[in-house]
Amino acid sequence: MMNVPLNIATMLERAERFFPKKQVISRMKNGLVRHTYQEIGERTRKLASALRTLGVNTGDRVGTFAWNHHRHLEAYFAIPGIGAVLHTINIRLSPQHIAYIINHANDRVLLIDDDLLPIIERVQDEINVEAFIIMTDDPMLPETTLAPVYHYEELLQQAEPISFVKDLDEHHPAGMCYTSATTGNPKGVLYSHRGIVLHSMALGLADSAALSESDVALPVVPMFHANAWGLPFAAVWFGTTLVMPGAAFTPKILAELMEQEKVTLAAGVPTVWLGLLNELEKGLYDLRSVTRILCGGSAAPKGMIRAFEEKYGIPFVHAYGMTETSPLVVLSRLKSYQQHVSNEEKLDIRAKQGFLVPGVEMKVIGKDGEVAWDGTEMGELCLRGPWIADEYYNDERSKDAFRDGWLYTGDVVTVDEEGFIKIVDRTKDVIKSGGEWISSVDLENALMAHEAVFEAAVVAVPHPQWQERPIACVVVKEGKSVTKEELYDFLRPQFAKWWLPDEIVFMNEIPKTSVGKFLKMKLREQLRDYFTNVQ
Length: 535
Ligand code: AMP
What we know:
The chain is of the alpha/beta class.
């Protein structure tokens, strides 16, 4: 067989050549804008040329700080298209973490949405970036303290389109994305051209997301989180119509977009779909075009799957993945011979995370080696495959997660007789709220740095809207006193607002294991019904 390196540029070339009329529709400040793949191709080649003129070379990192829209899509292809590395920066991270990852990745240029400028301005003294490109619909650059700044559209106007670099080793890095750690700074994951191309192919398989040319795909999942689950890459390759929701959308906006653009596939975290369900209650929308909603990032509650399917006739597919796994690795679809079971049983099976998509392998390691596939024995899920990272970028923490050729996911699962995995716990001490991570350890350390706090444990409690929210349990030092408000005032300057615990509970002592570690399982049990009780 020919040894042709897999390369992202060929994906856009295919769209330009075979689907020049197909569209990318973006929700921007002044309404929807439409670009054909021919236009996207031309604009991407101009952006590639502009980046070259700014001095970006093979292997250099270029950061993006942006919502889901056509310009971000152009960056997705222009940056790897010149052999550079697309570093998608999560806009929800704390300023300290944003500065850290820009420095750690060594981003030479940043592409920033105009409305997100203030966040980067806050860290400008801590970073060393050579050029800032502002993505804006306005003809004028907004006022900013950043320098030097360039206007995205002006750069494109001045640039001559260029050809992409395709003679790269397929293992050459094309993208990178940082994922939150249990504590401390985020960890970087590098994606190769090869990994992205193979992962995109997996998104097109009939038994996985079955993404195809005839789809109208709406990635609600942000392009700054695990590459919007790889959908932008695959959609362009397949000539799929893309609908990009832009900044600060609401369930109403999503419902309208889905109806108006006749979306067939939408992808996002459970919080997004819970919001949409509430909106659909109004009975105002016709979403018959939707053939599946892809839901992952956190567990999809069975009741939500039921409501979408039984009430609104919208098929709902539960999927699982991680930043480290590109991300799609597991998807919950019934097998042909599982169709005869009762509706309730079907829902029980489909509420599990599912089984492996072709191309990746798993093993589940319990305390006595690999667990039995009996649906009860628990173990840590380990994965390997061509779109799974084999280390964190320049990070000593790699050795904890990557061992003997496997990624240890930190997710504790059971596997049933049919190979469906069900996540039952996490070994990593983190909280996932609305699809984004909160470090319990960082909150605990911050609380314990308060002079009146003896010890503090922060645990995840199930929440109807955000899936999980943090609750802090605090023991006050003898002879000292502190109020909840004082503790919140103490935490506020140190963390993003959405990281703050929903409640601070004062306790006489925190339950501990025999070796003195917090018994978080017990605490979680004690607090499990917290949000049901306070409603
Ligand atoms: P991230 O790298 O931010 O995408 O987070 C990946 C982690 O999210 C996984 O290791 C799981 O802990 C969690 N996760 C992803 N998908 C699911 C799911 N369908 N159900 C439960 N947890 C999930």
